[in-house]
Amino acid sequence: MLDIADELHRWVEQGRDFAVATVVTVTGSAPRGPGAALAVDTDGTAIGSVSGGCVEGAVYELCRQALQDGETVLERFGFSDDDAFAAGLTCGGIIDVLVMPVRTGDAVRPVLTAAVAAAASGRPAAVARVVSGPPDLLGRALLVHPDGTYDGGYGGRPELDRTVAAEARACLDSGRTGTLRIGEHGSPCGAPLTLLVESSLPSPRMIVFGATDFASALVKVGKFLGYRVTVCDARPVFATRARFPEADEIVVAWPHTYLERTELDRRTVLCVLTHDAKFDVPLLRLALRSPVAYVGALGSRRTHLDRTERLREAGVTEPELTRLRSPVGLDLGARTPEETALSIGAEIIANRRGGSGVSLTGAQTPIHHDGAASGTAGRAGPVA
User: Fold this and answer.
1) Alpha carbon of 196 to those of 73, 201, 301, 348: distances in Å?
2) Inter-CA distances, 122 with 82, 298, 377, Å
3) Quick check: 125 and 200 in contact, CB under 8 A?
4) How does pLDDT run across 93-120, given as a tens digit for each residue?
5) How many CB atoms lie within 10 A of CB 163?
6) What does DSSP say about strands 18-27 and 141-144: parallel, antiparallel, or unpaired?
7) How far apart (Å, rounded) are the C-alpha atoms in residues 244 and 252?
8) Fewest CB within 10 angstroms: 171, 184, 255, 350, which?
9) Secondary structure of residue 115 in the 3-state scheme
């Protein structure tokens, strides 16, 4: 649900009633993961997707029904061998989808609209909804903030509220979206409950060093992938808004001094396109010791060998050097700035998701790597 928070927030501000369908679990191959959502308002307008098209029509009708009768339902969709016209996933997977109304006067609306507002404004938050268990709890929600405080609850079960809040906060800390199973009273005792916990984190950062034509193309790819993109260059004549209109931030500073003072985390990606030793060496020396997800540097193989030798002389260790992606990008045969930016973006995705980077044709590798972190951006994604 939080993956379409921007659109849902606009609906809330306009006072619209709607129903939202959210993927809870995925078994086998499926186009979308837990947290993917489709919403339908009373006019029949739809936003989002739960399956990339396979079961959208059936889920759309379930949303329309939920708006009429006010009932929350959990529906399973899978591949059907018996009925060629049945709604199912052609990829052979199985998804469970929670469909619930969010109408004016519904008890859960204040909690869900607050969650949507937080995600739309870039504030971290997690929302935990009951997807199976006692009927009086189905669809109830708890909104958990980074400091552990929470809004909403599960109908006079304070121990359950506290237990779910603690678990949801742990999911938020790691940017994870997935299911949680606990007892009805917040302990192993009592009827089992299944909850969907959706985490929303601010967009991760991409910092591009070097205001070049390759950087201009990479800014566009970074924005497309959901990053908040900063361009940094020491030369004010090149680091301008006119050259980088899509960048979120443009900084005129020596790259290593900017890196020293800016905020970094484990989702940040650093792309060094300066291609100049006087910038690269002090910058990479810091970058390779930082807690970021990815450090890539542009250049030929000869440039890479010269750069790594200079880094060793500057005190960079061999384990630190293994973190460096250089020459940056996957082997696509790229030549133009746009093609190079695409190859860098592809390598960032492979690094984030645990992909091999090989062609899927004829390969026995999985298409989706379930072991990788799910997110955010989102809100749920991108999580590097």
Assistant:
1) 14, 16, 47, 28
2) 45, 31, 9
3) yes
4) 788 999 999 999 999 999 999 999 999 9
5) 18
6) unpaired
7) 13
8) 350
9) helix
